[in-house]
Amino acid sequence: xxxxxxxRQIAFILFGIVVGYGIMPMAKxxxxxxxxxxxxxxxxxxxxxxIFTYMVTYLGYVHRNKTIYEYSEILVGKFxxxxxxxxxxxxxxxxxxxxxxxxxxxxxxxxxxKTPVWVLCLLFLIVVYYAVSRGIRTIAxxxxxxxxxxxxxxxIIQISIFTQGEIVNLKPFFVIDDIKLYISAISTIIFPFxxxxxxxxxxxxxxxxxxxxxxxxxxIIALIGFLYILVVQSCISVMGVDxxxxxxxxxxxxxxxxxxxxxxxxxxxxxxxxPIWIISxxxxxxxxxxxxxxxxxxxxxKFQHKKIFxxxxxxxxxxxxxxxxxxxIEKLLDYTSYxxxxxxxxxxxxxxxxxxxxxxxxxxx
Length: 365
Known about the structure:
The chain is an all-alpha fold. The protein has a single domain (about 5-365), classed as Amino acid/polyamine transporter I, CATH 1.20.1740. The protein has helices at about 5-20, 25-35, 40-60, 70-75, 80-110, 115-135, 135-160, 180-185, 210-240, 240-245, 250-255, 270-300, 305-320, 325-345, 345-355, 360-365. The two termini are about 25 Å apart.
């Protein structure tokens, strides 16, 4: 099966997994941690994310037509590789399972008030199951089409929100004495930036993927950072810092607060935002599920692919029902964020150093 992807498709896959549920509570989290200087926190987080994006892209580019399973075995041996794979599998599994449950909760509370959460979880998993079963090329096309839609509509929505905001709510823009506060607040906004690790399960092809891939991936992360800053600043401009921290679904709360008469039948922006948000969730879920299934298949080669699909999705549905309250889900989300830091920082750094020490980058030229 031909699984080669273009540079543009890989960049949109990166966008698809990073921009998802995390955009909903982001304004609240940023405002709590850094106040009106949150844009600076997001800028630093974006720069850090770009650095790790370059590193993970470099590993895939040097070890052509290999995923982390193959090049990790070459660099650090089978034992460490198995440990790494278990960590990645657990992370991807928890990632899409918790997002399924959390998203179902939000949809139930905002749109389908009388629909049981387990029904929404099952519906999400069925749709995701079908998409993942079609393979990575189909997933890439979905992310390419949906990603463009998400970018366009997010820009329209956030600019529209800005027209209803007050510039005074954004002041002070930056306080030099609060730099330590801005930097420490990065730890509170980890989740919206995790997802770069999906690049470790996508083999880069010698013919299809050139050095432009580095530029594409860096630009897409920079765009994500810009969108995040736009989201946070637009929400604060309408609600103010003291107002925005009261809402867990801060972006949706802001959108529902405004009414734009000149947009006529589009004056209620939540009618536009919710479908776009669900589309972004769909991209995130299929990619995280793909990562979990792909690496499980690599680690347990004796199992048939269909059995792996069935086991993972069944387990995901069961695990998604375990948390009793939204607070329990949020705690699991925090733990998953910390696990995300491990799979995107220490492990790639180790493999990057091993690649340099063993001079595999020179051998691949």
